[in-house]
Amino acid sequence: MPRDIAEAARARSGPSGLSAYVAAAVARQIERDNLNEIVQVAEAEHGPVTHEEVQALRDQLHQARAPHTGGEKSPA
Q: Rounded distance, CA 76 to CA 62, Å?
């Protein structure tokens, strides 16, 4: 591991220590790799996802996370 990355990781690792910090980072990367594999399989079967489809789903997530204030969207 490059020294600058190791030093940054140590500085951010907190009380749980560097090993736990690295383990969490590796777990997140494995989750991303698994999601990428799912996307590749889905795109091979159904074609690539368009920018418009991605934006529509982001909008849906944003609305679902927004506090319910009479149907108004919260400011971004």
A: 9
